[in-house]
Design a protein that fits this description.
The protein has 95 residues and is mainly α. Helix content is 42%, strand content 0%. It has a domain at 9-74.
């Protein structure tokens, strides 16, 4: 992901995840709508799942083929923050 200071990027990533989870569109369609690659959407999804790991998205008692309920999705955070563009290699040389 490129480095950017645009404050609206976190919101746009969240909109992509809403299309993926709520509207249940495929990864390719979401990637085409946002003008990014499928790999980028998968990375955003991985970050979103890590951000909302404390929420039980699936009910273990119900059937697996039912979509995630809107009640569970309302508890999720939809903004995916931008990671720092700072180089992390210098930490290896710190004393």
């Amino acid at each position: 992901m490129s480095y950017s200071t645009n404050p609206n990027l976190a919101k746009a990533r969240g909109k992509a995840m809403k299309l993926l989870f709520i509207d249940e569109l495929s990864v390719q369609i979401v990637a085409d709508r946002f003008g990014v690659s499928r790999t980028t959407i998968w990375r955003w999804k991985r970050k979103w799942l890590a951000l909302n790991s404390h929420i039980a998205l699936e009910n273990q008692v119900r059937q697996k083929d039912k979509p995630i309920s809107s009640f569970r999705l309302s508890a999720c955070s939809w903004r995916i923050p931008t990671n720092s563009g700072r180089a992390h290699w210098f930490i290896l040389f710190r004393k």
